[in-house]
């Protein structure tokens, strides 16, 4: 580093020297030096990232255009470099846009759109171009043809990193066999050390995009993933942000930009799920946050010392006795009917009484008289705050509390209202909690009685519950935007108001069925389960988490389970350890769900694959390379819930499997002992051999199916020794025609007859299924509706 220290004593101006070297840095220059941030840290990884960026874009573009994707990905060695070609059958890119899309970082169509897409920042493919030009010095070659165009456009370009602008070397038209789509050719320094990851990425992309056809050719292998469905993922709609989870800075920015004058209009036009009713609720909460609520008090009973009527009458001057009395009694009458009255309610009561009295007596009660009347009545209402608060506190604190202590606490809280200069007994919830807290501390110090957190919270809740939201007008948008505290009050109101979950038509989850289907296609296991959660919100963006589990079968039994991570249908290949999905997997106690987990935390072991998909209009990644989901608590919670949902099914399956295994073991033991006992018994008693199948089925509480054949009559006898009713499907396959049968379905097929019954056999009961056959016949029976381990067939 250049040192200016020696110059300090010489009167030189270091800041000015430094200023000479200070200049703006273009984003392209920045990433040229920091390519690892975009996932281009090595040749092996660079290749995976470039493929990923181009394939993600191709899938986004085709889906957006409603086209079933047909992709071709080729990696070939050319001299010292690798050439990467990616072709899609998407809508193509217009001639004017091609240079910017590929030759300018941070240029794209998705950054400002609240809609689920693989691309987010407009940096991916231009970063691949940058990496290729840096390592090979060769330009990117782009061919693109839009629908209906006779020719395709062809460009060769690099990025001018000083300016972050495209530098075009070739611009022409060309013919191309694809009627529409885009072809990208990049040459780069690379290697195939990450072959497995590359294969995994393509394979898993095919799994979660069953509507795509992907052909993948690399130096050693040529793979084709045919499409499994012609169904495109549900079309997504762009949405506005959801009020839950928006951050303060964003809110202030939105307030500054909106054309709305009123906060209600702003909320309704800028956010999703806010209609008139929700906006009203939200404003009510905003008022509570911003102005505080007004405490309401029980009106004094008529005739007592604080008589409202007398006080009001006293406060009125010069209106004549009759009118004054009529007015005072009108006020007192209405108040006496109310259980509680807050200051602004009193103002209305007085105004109404004034209007009515004026109509009846012809005497007008102007502003000053009304104000005096309000002040007088308010004095009467608040004359004994202490007694009122005592009743509230007493109701919500345990009966074990000493009466004097409750009184002391009530008195202290009452004093805070009395001392408040506002005079309307207005208080925010936060201030109220602080006041109750202080009063409780005092009561502890002075009276040695403690009110714990719960008691304090109950008192706050009781007071807040009887306090009234004020009718004041909320400030207009421009005032909210100009004051950080007011904006923060609005934000808090947005957070606490119940608002319908965001619409999910901006998201395209895989769905639990397809997720399970995908796992089945990919993994040979014994058990599969999947769960899709309802949409939630983070930072104003909706998201859905899905999880799937495959277990057993051919899955590797030793070592840790495999975790497949997906974000917006894109497999995440790198940085597993830094991903919120991994963290959540490790934090779950998998022993509860029947998986082995040394030490009770960390990655579980065993023959299982865990799959998690996070779909959102804005997936928060840990870095620009989009390899790992960031630790956002709302998302982590949903990942956990989705995994647990699927894991509960795994647990049920494993429990059942274990109990069946135990049963099978018991049955094996009995099956071994029983014949020996029967033999001994026959020998001792000298009787014929005993039929033991029946006994075995009875001991094991099985369903026993036996066949008896005699004189052309076939009897299939079903004995249900189990403890539950059995809904069975019994199919007898025979080599002779049984003719038409009552209660059974007969289907002839290739010289065989399938006779099918659907009997329901109650627990402890039996069913007899009969038919006739002519001549000899072979039989083969199959029974569905009861697990193999609980079935004994003797037929
Ligand atoms: N194959 C393609 N067909 C049509 N349009 C494309 C294609 N590839 C890229 N685009 C357009 O170019 C834009 C920029 O792509 P880029 O990969 O740089 O960013 P992105 O996909 O929007 O976001 P991210 O940086 O997260 O990948 C896209 O938003 C899209 O509009």
TrEMBL record:
Domain of life: Archaea
UniProt keyword annotation of Phosphoprotein present: no
The enzyme's E.C. designation: 5.6.2.2
Annotated ranges, domain Histidine kinase/HSP90-like ATPase: 42-163
Coiled coil: 636-663
Pfam families named in the record: HATPase_c, Top6b_C, Topo-VIb_trans
CDD domains noted in UniProt: HATPase_TopVIB-like, TopoIIB_Trans
MF annotations from Gene Ontology: ATP binding; DNA binding; DNA topoisomerase type II (double strand cut, ATP-hydrolyzing) activity
InterPro entries from the UniProt entry: HATPase_C_sf, HATPase_dom, Ribosomal_Su5_D2-typ_SF, Ribsml_uS5_D2-typ_fold_subgr, Top6b_C, TopoVI_B, TopoVI_B_transducer
Signal peptide from the UniProt entry: none
Functional summary from the UniProt entry: Relaxes both positive and negative superturns and exhibits a strong decatenase activity.
HAMAP family cross-referenced by the UniProt entry: Top6B (MF_00322)
Name the UniProt record assigns to this protein: Type 2 DNA topoisomerase 6 subunit B
Source organism of this protein record: Halomarina ordinaria
Gene that produces this protein: top6B
């Amino acid at each position: 580093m250049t040192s200016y220290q020696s110059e300090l004593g010489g009167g030189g101006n270091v800041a000015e020297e430094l200023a000479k070297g200070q200049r703006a840095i273009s984003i392209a220059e920045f990433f040229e030096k920091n390519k690892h941030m975009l996932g281009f840290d090595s040749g092996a990884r660079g290749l995976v990232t470039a493929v990923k960026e181009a394939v993600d874009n191709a899938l986004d573009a085709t889906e957006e255009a409603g086209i079933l994707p047909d992709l071709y990905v080729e990696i070939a060695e050319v001299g010292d470099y690798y050439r990467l070609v990616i072709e899609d059958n998407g809508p193509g890119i217009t001639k004017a846009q091609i240079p910017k899309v590929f030759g300018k970082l941070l240029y794209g169509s998705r950054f400002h759109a609240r809609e689920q897409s693989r691309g987010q920042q407009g940096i991916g493919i231009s970063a691949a171009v940058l990496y290729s030009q840096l390592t090979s010095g060769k330009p990117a070659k782009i061919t693109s043809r839009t629908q209906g165009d006779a020719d395709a456009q062809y460009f060769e370009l690099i990025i001018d990193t000083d300016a972050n602008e495209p530098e075009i070397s070739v611009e022409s038209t060309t013919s191309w066999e694809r009627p529409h789509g885009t072809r990208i050719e990049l040459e780069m320094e690379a290697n195939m050390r990450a072959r497995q990851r590359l294969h995994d990425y393509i394979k898993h992309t095919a799994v979660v995009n069953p509507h795509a056809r992907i052909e993948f050719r690399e130096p050693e292998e040529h793979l084709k993933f045919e499409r499994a469905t012609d169904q495109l993922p549900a079309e997504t709609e762009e949405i506005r942000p959801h009020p839950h989870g928006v951050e303060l800075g964003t809110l202030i920015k939105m307030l500054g930009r909106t054309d709305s004058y009123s906060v209600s209009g702003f909320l309704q036009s800028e956010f999703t799920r806010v209609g008139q009713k929700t906006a009203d609720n939200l404003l009510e909460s905003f008022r509570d946050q911003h102005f505080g609520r007004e405490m309401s008090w029980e009106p004094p009973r008529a005739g007592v010392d604080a008589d409202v009527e007398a006080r009001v009458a006293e406060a009125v001057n010069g209106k004549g006795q009759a009118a004054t009395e009529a007015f005072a009694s009108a006020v007192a009458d209405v108040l006496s009917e109310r259980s509680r009255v807050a200051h602004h309610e009193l103002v209305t009561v007085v105004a109404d009484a004034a209007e009515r009295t004026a109509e009846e007596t012809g005497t007008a009660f102007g502003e000053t008289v009304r104000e005096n009347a309000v002040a007088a009545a308010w004095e009467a209402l608040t004359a004994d705050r202490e007694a009122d608060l005592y009743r509230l506190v007493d109701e919500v604190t345990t009966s074990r509390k000493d009466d004097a202590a409750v009184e002391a606490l009530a008195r202290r809280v009452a004093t805070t209202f009395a001392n408040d200069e506002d005079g309307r007994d207005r208080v925010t919830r936060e201030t109220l909690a602080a006041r109750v807290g202080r009063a409780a501390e005092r009561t502890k110090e002075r009276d040695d009685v403690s009110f714990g957190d719960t008691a304090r919270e109950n008192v706050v809740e009781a007071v807040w519950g009887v306090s009234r939201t004020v009718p004041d007008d909320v400030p207009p948008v421009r005032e909210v935007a100009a004051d950080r505290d007011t904006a923060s009050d609005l934000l808090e109101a947005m957070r606490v108001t119940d608002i319908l979950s965001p619409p999910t038509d901006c998201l395209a989850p895989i769905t639990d069925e397809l997720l399970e289907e995908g796992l089945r296609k990919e993994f040979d296991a014994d058990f599969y389960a999947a769960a899709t959660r309802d949409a939630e919100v983070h930072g104003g963006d909706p998201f859905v988490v899905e999880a799937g589990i495959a277990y057993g079968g051919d899955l590797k039994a030793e070592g840790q389970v495999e975790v497949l991570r997906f974000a917006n249908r894109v497999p995440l290949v790198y940085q597993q350890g830094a991903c919120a999905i991994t963290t959540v997997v490790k934090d779950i106690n998998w022993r509860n769900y029947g998986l082995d987990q040394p030490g009770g935390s960390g990655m579980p072991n065993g023959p299982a694959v865990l799959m998690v998909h996070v779909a959102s209009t804005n997936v928060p990644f840990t870095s620009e390379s989009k390899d790992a989901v960031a630790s956002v608590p709302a998302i982590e919670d949903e990942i956990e819930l989705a995994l647990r949902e699927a894991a509960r099914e795994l647990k049920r399956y494993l429990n059942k499997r274990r109990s069946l295994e135990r049963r099978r073991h018991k049955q094996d033991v009995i099956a071994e002992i029983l014949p020996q006992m029967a033999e001994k018994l026959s020998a001792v008693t000298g009787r014929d051999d005993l039929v033991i199948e029946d006994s075995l089925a009875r001991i094991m509480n099985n369903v026993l199916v036996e066949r008896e054949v005699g004189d052309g009559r076939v009897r299939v006898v079903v004995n249900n020794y189990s403890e539950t009713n059995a809904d069975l499907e019994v199919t007898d396959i025979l080599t002779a025609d049984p003719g038409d049968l009552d209660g059974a379905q007969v289907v002839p097929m290739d010289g065989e007859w399938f006779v099918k019954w659907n009997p329901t056999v109650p627990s402890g009961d039996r069913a007899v299924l009969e038919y006739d056959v002519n001549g000899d016949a072979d039989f083969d029976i199959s029974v569905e509706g009861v697990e193999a381990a609980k079935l004994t067939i003797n037929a």
